[in-house]
Specification:
The chain contains two helices and 18 strands. It has about 240 residues and is mostly beta strands. Strands 4, 5, 8, 9, 10, 14, 15, 17 and 18 form a nine-stranded mixed sheet that branches. Strands 1, 2, 3, 6 and 7 form a five-stranded antiparallel sheet that branches. Strands 11, 12, 13 and 16 form a four-stranded antiparallel sheet that branches. It starts with a helix and ends with a strand.
Length: about 240
């Protein structure tokens, strides 16, 4: 029994040490025909996903005004066609139930895992939000109503490598303190009491920043917490 408890403790510690940068990213890629919702590891490694889990998509022009956007769904991708030029696209995906077990992470609920005889360390539900910017404009510094959102305080597309972009992190309408925002190359920056942080622009064209927030669930047999992740992506010139 003692050795079993030690094993569980080691699994919990190892899971806690896995950085956000190692998780799957969510962002939008500009294509010749329009845009594509991408899941994988930015900037170039995309993977298949279930298009039905892409629950919300919105597009905005340079000034932050809504732009009508239509979807084209394939077996493993969602493609987007805005009615007119879109400077920003936001996405919400509910990826569903996940469990961390003594045999690794599994894409299933706690009850499903236990039926298979797996030892569940923790169970959760994963929701991700993404904001991708494509053109400079006043709209890039406006909040667009995502429940979990990285809001640039200056236009990111006006920045260059090595400069620091001021942002504010908002969760459910309130600043989120002491959250780790991680760049695509693994650099971590913590938010202050007002949810403010300064993100260093990396020496690469595609910039992607992400952060997580866990909300504990009480008396829920299938999840210990709801895991929210939000992404901000854009491209800068050298």
């Amino acid at each position: 029994m003692a050795s079993f408890k030690i094993t569980i403790a080691l699994v919990i510690i190892s899971l806690a040490l896995v950085p956000t940068a190692c998780a799957h990213h969510l962002w939008v890629i500009k294509t010749n025909e329009g845009f594509m919702v991408a899941r994988g590891h930015a900037p170039a490694k995309t993977q298949d996903y279930d298009p039905s889990l892409v629950k919300g998509v919105k597009a905005f022009d340079r000034n932050g005004n809504p732009v009508l956007v239509t979807r084209k769904v394939t077996q493993s991708r969602v493609f987007l066609a805005p009615e007119k030029d879109a400077s920003m696209i936001t996405v919400r995906c509910d990826w569903g139930h996940r469990v961390n077990t003594t045999q690794g992470k599994k894409l299933m609920s706690r009850q499903e895992a236990e039926k298979l005889g797996l030892t569940v360390v923790e169970s959760f539900f994963s929701t991700q939000f993404s904001k991708s910017l494509f053109n400079a404009g006043a709209g890039n510094t406006k909040a667009v109503g995502l429940p979990f959102e990285i809001i640039p305080l200056d236009d990111p597309l006006q920045f260059h490598h090595g400069e620091k972009l001021p942002v504010q992190l908002i969760f459910q309408g309130h600043p989120l303190e002491n959250a780790a925002i991680i760049s695509v190359n693994g650099q971590e920056t913590k938010t202050d009491k007002r949810g403010l942080a300064k993100l260093t622009i990396a020496p690469a064209s595609v910039q992607l920043f992400s952060t997580r927030h866990k909300v504990p669930e009480q008396n829920n047999p299938d999840k210990d917490y709801h895991l929210y992740t939000t992404f901000l992506s854009f491209e800068v010139k050298k």
